[in-house]
Design a protein that fits this description.
By secondary structure, the protein is of the alpha+beta class. It has nine helices and ten strands. The strands form three sheets. It has a five-stranded antiparallel β-sheet with strand order 1-2-3-5-4, with helices on both faces. A three-stranded antiparallel β-sheet has the order 6-8-9, with no helix packed on it. It has a two-stranded antiparallel sheet with strand order 7-10. It starts with a helix and ends with a helix. The relative contact order is 0.11.
Length: 292
């Protein structure tokens, strides 16, 4: 989605009339960097966030919800980008946030403790106090919506069949704030310290194990099986009040949504490695779910 320089300049003048727009450049599939100048010639960067057509069809209110969530979490003990502006008049809508310094990915924080740090961070997200912060506007993930999605691959049909078999005997944990896409690529670090948790467009309310299950597969791809198990054990150790019985169900829920992994593999070799890990993850989750 493109936003004209004229529209952007008008919006920036509403945020701060002293700003001068210099340009906009793509950063990722949904984020662009806005370069501007503040008074006395100092430089400033902002982020413009858009949403794909598929995301807008899935959730027509996605821009408004992400903006409202960021505004809410700006007062919570979480490092999230500061939300500055929601442009509802533009079609499609978009939002503008502060730029967060840092690098994404596990390479930004070397060391064996990285999985444990990820687990502690996920716990912080799930611990956001819903009595203090109103999150009722977010989509709900429950036993009905967990089964949403039309399978387009044999693996997805296999996943849904296993989830349906298990659903009548499962109980889920009390809902918490879910990031929805928690993985190293959505975490920014600088000098070994976390500076930002980004990309909240998939946030919802649901069983914390849903975030854990989906991110377990992401950690497997990024860091390998040993790191995935260390991440899982540390998270569950920090959340001993959770019933982990349904974790294989949420593993499969995440695997269903990440079945298109080949589209974001760096090359054919990476796609082949990820495919093998995906199949092993899938088989193990179905075995654990059926035997539970």
């Amino acid at each position: 989605m493109s936003v004209s320089a004229q529209v952007l300049a008008e919006i920036l003048s509403e945020i701060d009339p002293r700003w001068t727009l210099h340009g906009i450049r793509a950063l990722s599939r949904r984020a662009s960097v806005i370069d501007l100048t503040k008074p006395r010639g100092s430089a400033e960067r902002l982020i413009l966030l858009t949403h794909s057509q598929a995301d807008r069809e899935r959730n027509p209110h996605i821009a408004r919800q992400e903006y409202r969530l960021l505004k809410t979490l700006n007062d919570a003990p979480l490092p999230v980008p500061q939300a500055l502006y929601l442009c509802k008049s533009h079609q499609p809508p978009f939002l503008i946030t502060r730029f967060v310094e840092g690098s994404a990915g596990h390479s930004a924080v070397p060391g064996r403790a990285f999985p444990q740090r990820l687990a502690a961070l996920l716990r912080r997200i799930h611990a956001v106090d819903r009595r203090r912060f109103d999150l009722s506007f977010l989509p709900k993930l429950d036993d009905r919506t967990a089964m949403d999605g039309s399978p387009s691959a044999p693996e997805q049909r296999r996943i849904q069949a296993a989830m349906r078999r298990a659903l009548p005997r499962l109980e889920f944990n009390a809902p918490a704030l879910l990031h929805g896409d928690f993985w190293p690529g959505n975490l920014l670090w600088q000098d070994g310290e976390l500076t930002g948790v980004i990309d909240w467009e998939d946030a919802m309310l649901g069983d914390p194990l849903a975030d854990l299950g989906k991110s377990r597969l992401e950690i497997l791809w990024a860091l390998g099986p040993v790191a995935m198990e260390a991440y899982t054990a540390h998270y569950l150790g920090l959340n001993q009040g959770l019933d982990a019985t349904a974790l294989p169900f949420w593993d499969l829920w995440g695997a269903f949504r990440l079945a298109h992994f080949a589209s974001f593999a760096l090359d054919a070799q990476a796609a082949a490695r990820m495919s093998g890990q995906y199949q092993a993850f899938l088989t193990d989750a179905i075995r654990r779910l059926d035997s539970g």
